[in-house]
Design goal:
Blueprint lengths: L10 E2 L2 E10 L2 E8 L4 E5 H6 L7 H4 L8 E2 L2 E10 L2 E8 L4 E5 H6 L7 H4 L16 H14 L18 H4 L2 H8 L8 E4 L11 E4 L1 H5 L15 E4 L4 E8 L2 E7 L2 H16 L3
Antiparallel strand pairs: 1-2, 2-3, 3-4, 5-6, 6-7, 7-8, 9-10, 11-12, 12-13
């Protein structure tokens, strides 16, 4: 058996030779201690040639980002590495310190310790309008769907026949709400003054069902003045008619106003934003 060179105490890279282990297939194995604290049996020639520099921790060791700033977050120190995922302690500009996964911060998905979600108005970098759940916002969404989404049920009567939404409103609910103002009441909905033109500030108003019924596009053979409303000679009553969700609805009334009001309510139910 050839003599084994004593490497005890020798440090190469992050590894320190502690004691000889054995020889297998002409390879000399030593017990080495890494600077990370781990102890591992490794091939001596691999360490001496520089191919092996650590116990393996270098492969998973995250780069040092101490002091680097991401938005309002400043990296303070490494917390831990879990399954190859690095977690750091970040100090937010608000003074809070929080443990956050580095990948979330680097990608921009996490931009603060959470304080930005608690701020409102211009102080919140993620603030838009704060009216996402209001009826005005839902009406704006409904307009966009009817005019721009060819798969929407109302598209044939709107976008399909050339009804468009202006550039100012197309991608901005804020502009729509600023131009139209608050909805006067639950009985009011958006109405186009000229039914052959699109949605833009000068052609839109808030109107009740009866006001809209009087302004609805009519067929050429219509004699009542209201779409979907006709006089029944046999019953001597005004009738409202509509095809709603694949089913036909017909209801009679003593006055034309009542029939028109009913017809408009059905139209609102049909065109209501989901």
């Amino acid at each position: 058996m050839r003599a084994i060179k004593d490497l005890t105490g020798l440090k190469l890279g992050l590894l320190t030779f502690e004691k000889f282990s054995h020889i297998t297939n002409r390879r000399t194995y030593w017990i080495c201690k890494c600077d990370c604290g781990n102890t591992k049996e490794l091939v001596a020639n691999s360490i001496r040639s520089g191919r092996t520099k650590s116990c393996g921790c270098l492969l998973h060791r995250p780069k040092d980002i101490t002091g680097k700033k991401f938005g309002v977050l400043t990296a303070k120190k490494l917390s831990c590495v879990k399954k190859g995922r690095a977690f750091w302690f970040f100090e937010c500009d608000c003074g809070n310190i929080k443990e956050i996964r580095y990948a979330f911060v680097a990608s921009g998905n996490t931009q603060s310790c959470g304080c930005s979600h608690r701020r409102t108005g211009e102080n919140n970098p993620n603030y838009k309008h704060g009216k996402k759940h209001t009826s005005e916002y839902k009406i704006w969404k409904g307009i966009r769907k009817r005019c721009l989404n060819s798969k929407d049920a109302g598209f044939p009567n709107y976008g399909g026949r050339g009804i468009t939404i202006c550039d100012r409103w197309r991608n901005s609910a804020v502009n729509f709400m600023n131009d139209m103002g608050a909805r006067p009441s639950p009985r009011h909905s958006i109405d186009r003054i000229d039914n052959d033109k699109g949605y833009f500030p000068d052609n839109c108003r808030w109107a009740t069902a009866l006001e809209q019924a009087r302004n609805t596009r009519m067929r050429k053979i219509n004699t009542s003045g209201f779409t979907g409303v006709h006089w029944c000679k046999r019953d001597k009553r005004w009738k409202a008619r509509i095809s709603l969700f694949g089913k036909r609805r017909i209801k009679s009334f003593p006055t034309i106003e009542a029939a028109a009001d009913c017809r408009k309510k059905w139209e609102q139910e049909r065109d209501a934003p989901i």
